[in-house]
Write a structure and sequence with these properties.
Blueprint lengths: L4 E6 L6 H11 L4 E7 L10 H19 L2 E7 L3 H8 L3 E6 L2 H17 L4 E6 L9 H9 L10 H14 L1
Parallel strand pairs: 1-2, 1-4, 2-3, 4-5
Helix pairs in contact: 1-2
Length: 168
């Protein structure tokens, strides 16, 4: 039987508990999950690509250990569908937090389907406790001195604190 491979793409700047919730749930659906960390310099990332990949790897280790699923973290800077083909993915996993995410994700799923009909997009609704978390909001709260401990995992929190101390 063919290995079921999914790709979960994102900027992960920073990786949040919401991202990890989707990764955990997606890992239960496949044999191998590739987490694609997009370069996406247009968003003005807080962390550079190397740091984002490293943090996602660190935070995914417990999920891989618990589920027994191979979770591979890879950076990418190309058309998502081309990257999906490169990693052998049959599906792209996307998380939905609220209705506002749906329009964008619906358009992306349609475009990706037109480009590669053999790759399906699978939407996972964010768990209720994570529906309001976004990397953008977490960065804003952190930059204004707010407590983000409940929004990001431990290694990411430590790295964000270290980054804010360097900027002071």
């Amino acid at each position: 039987m063919r290995e079921r491979v999914a790709l979960y793409p994102g900027t992960f700047d920073p990786v949040t508990n919401g991202h990890l919730d989707i990764i955990d749930r997606a890992a239960r659906l496949v044999d191998r999950l590739v987490v694609g960390v997009a370069m996406n310099v247009g968003k003005g990332p807080l962390f550079d690509l190397t740091d984002r990949v490293e943090l996602v790897e660190i935070e995914c280790q417990p999920i891989a250990a618990r589920t027994g699923v191979t979770i591979e973290v890879r950076p990418f800077d190309k058309l998502l569908i081309n990257f999906a083909h490169e990693v052998g993915a049959q599906m792209i996993v996307r998380g939905l937090r609220a209705v506002t995410d749906f329009d964008y994700e619906f358009a992306m799923a349609g475009m990706n389907y037109r480009l590669a009909r053999e790759i399906q997009t699978v939407f996972l609704m964010a768990s209720e406790r994570h529906q309001f978390i976004s990397s953008k909001l977490v960065k804003e709260v952190a930059m204004l001195g707010g407590d983000i401990a409940s929004f990001v995992p431990a290694a990411t929190l430590a790295r964000m604190h270290a980054l804010s101390r360097r900027q002071d």
